[in-house]
Design a protein that fits this description.
eight-stranded antiparallel beta barrel; alpha+beta; about 20% helix; Lipocalin; 3 helices; globular; about 50% strand
């Protein structure tokens, strides 16, 4: 009898903590916020250093906005699939130079770092060769 009671007390003391635990975030939720450009390589060439200093990517809901010098240079609708290997992201241009264009990519998300490789056709590896662009982003922490 004492063993059952002890077991019941242990179980009942654990259950409230389990119920309050937040469900794991999806990758799309983890994307949310502002990201600074650490590295950008397109067709094997690195982006100019000034873009690395002034470029910013902002994810909000299913939208990606790209800024240079705080000016919007493009907006895309995104679709993320974290069940694929590698994980995939699709972009549909809504504003700016890429309006109406579809781009396909793969991504890696590790803590406050996001690596995207995007092209007209879906890349299979993370490099900026050929028509693909390789982008390394770092989350901008709120002050």
């Amino acid at each position: 009898m004492l063993t059952r009671r002890t077991f019941l007390i242990v179980v009942l003391s654990i259950l409230p903590g389990l119920a309050l635990a937040e469900p794991p975030q999806s990758d799309e939720e983890k994307f949310q916020g502002e990201w600074a450009v650490e590295k950008l390589e397109v067709q094997g060439k690195s982006a100019p250093p000034e873009f690395l200093k002034t470029g910013k990517y902002v994810f909000k809901n299913q939208t990606l906005s790209v800024y240079e010098n705080d000016q919007s240079v493009g907006v895309s609708e995104i679709t993320v699939d974290s069940t694929q290997t590698p994980k995939t992201i699709d972009l549909t241009g809504k504003e700016g130079e890429g309006t109406g264009k579809m781009m396909f990519g793969i991504y890696k998300l590790e803590d406050d770092r996001l690596i995207l490789c995007i092209g007209g056709s879906r890349p299979t590896e993370f490099n900026g060769a050929g028509e693909a662009g390789l982008l390394h982003l770092k989350r901008i922490m709120a002050e």
